[in-house]
Amino acid sequence: MGLPLRMDNIHAPTVPSGPASNTSRNGDLGRLSFAELQNKKENMEAELKALGAVLDSHGVDMNTPLTTQDGFPRADLDIAQVRTTRARIIHLRNDYKELMAMVEKQLHEHFASLQEEEKPEVPLSGGANNTLADHSASQPLEEPFAKVNAVVPGSPAELAGLKPNDQIRIFGYVNSSNHDNLKKVAECVQGNEERPVLVRISRPSQGAREELHVTLTPRRNWGGRGLLGCHILPL
Predict the structure, then answer these.
(1) Is 198 helix (H, G, I), strand (E, B) or coil?
(2) Model pTM score
(3) pLDDT in 10s for each residue of the chain, 235 residues
(4) Distance between the two ends of the chain, CA-based, in angstroms?
(5) Angle made by CA atoms 206, 211, 215, in degrees to the nearest 5
């Protein structure tokens, strides 16, 4: 009987798991428009989904052992394809993380520029630290895509200033064109735990609507369920 092959690193990707992009290519992200970044993000997500399907077709994930208990490579798997697919997923995840950081940076810069043109900030009731500001009527408004149905007292959502019946126009990098039935909102929340997310809302007020924006920080251990403490419904 033969001895097991010495393949101590068989579970490792076929190429190093460091960032896939070189410095010059990553630097190009700063020259892309927000729409181009969004398109790049969607392309990465589509490729990650396709690569995940490849692993699923083999019945494995990123951590499934590729050897038998005796230390032999599993004969039921295409080891080379699994390792190559895993390596590509690792590289894409690294690139995706950097891309999302650039998306968030552009959003912060966008809202900062809007603040300079808005009216003075109005303190929220209840002693909250965050503030709301009236949106300038001269600015184009994004179509609302969701509505706040309920807000739990003491939650991150309440501290940010969200109220029932607020309509959401922008949630971080999510808007009416890409929210995917609110799946992207959940993705944005999960990816920004303990980080501020800029949210633009439209609020009914005395027969009219106020255009406001708040800073919402998803977090755990606030005393209730979820990271926000509010219920959001699609429009």
Answers:
(1) strand
(2) 0.50
(3) 444 444 445 555 554 444 444 434 545 777 777 778 878 888 888 898 899 999 999 999 989 999 888 889 899 999 999 999 999 999 988 888 888 778 777 776 766 665 555 544 444 443 333 434 444 444 567 889 999 999 999 899 999 899 999 999 999 888 888 888 999 999 889 888 888 888 999 998 877 888 888 888 899 888 888 899 999 999 8
(4) 66
(5) 125
